[in-house]
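# nightly structure sweep
# worker-07 picked up a monomer target from the shared queue
# config: single-sequence mode, recycle default, output format = structure tokens
# input follows
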Amino acid sequence: MNKLEAFGYITAQAARGEISFPTSVNAVLRLQIALDDPDCHVDEAIRLVLSEPQLAARTVALANTAAFGSSGGQVSNVRAAVLRIGYRRLRGLVAALLVRQFGHRIADPVLRAKAEQLWTHSAQVAALAQALARHVTRSDPDTALFAGIVHEVGGFYLLSRADEFPGLLDDDAENWGALCEDVVSVEVMRKLAIPANVAQAIGAMRDGVLNPEPHTLLDTLLLANRLAPVVSPLGEAELDAGLPAIDEATLQLLRVEAEETALALGEATLV
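# output follows
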């Protein structure tokens, strides 16, 4: 099967809703569904977090960052961390774990390296989006963090399938963009029950137009994508114009806050 045939095959599968996830992704999806249940008691949430050691470690780490109120003192256990960050922020951590699980079935070292770079980029975009939402665009920081984590989920899915199709991702940015963002990403986000407002903002990134006074979730993602030190290995969304005027003191604050949050989300090595 040549590359164009592979593109067509995967696109047709996505259009029919035939998206298959690694077993590890499905396990985290079950965790997400349980935590999204409005009747989920805090003790059950803590038990679920403790059942995933990586999630437990990340929850405590994130609770101790400046962005999540470390001025109230360091926490050293999952119960205190969950109570500090709350369910909405915990959802972002579950999303981070879910995205990273796509690396489980990537065997090819070149593809795995791309997946690790993509995770580093995603973590940086998420952390910057949260900081930008708080200090610049005044949008919801928790939604911005979540959207940044999942904004490349279609790319992770295709990387997890690329072992089946040698050469699929070689130097074909135009076809990659159309495949990833117009078809596969939409279906993957639907399967993962990504909220509509987040999915719409992510879908608009490739041709996004930055508002003169950035204030929307899309503006926040576009700015975070531009400011992220590590670029996506799968091609970048383009802004129609330069960055808005952000003073140097604010930029420094954004970078410091975002670096701490990105580290708390987890290192590049995929599990």
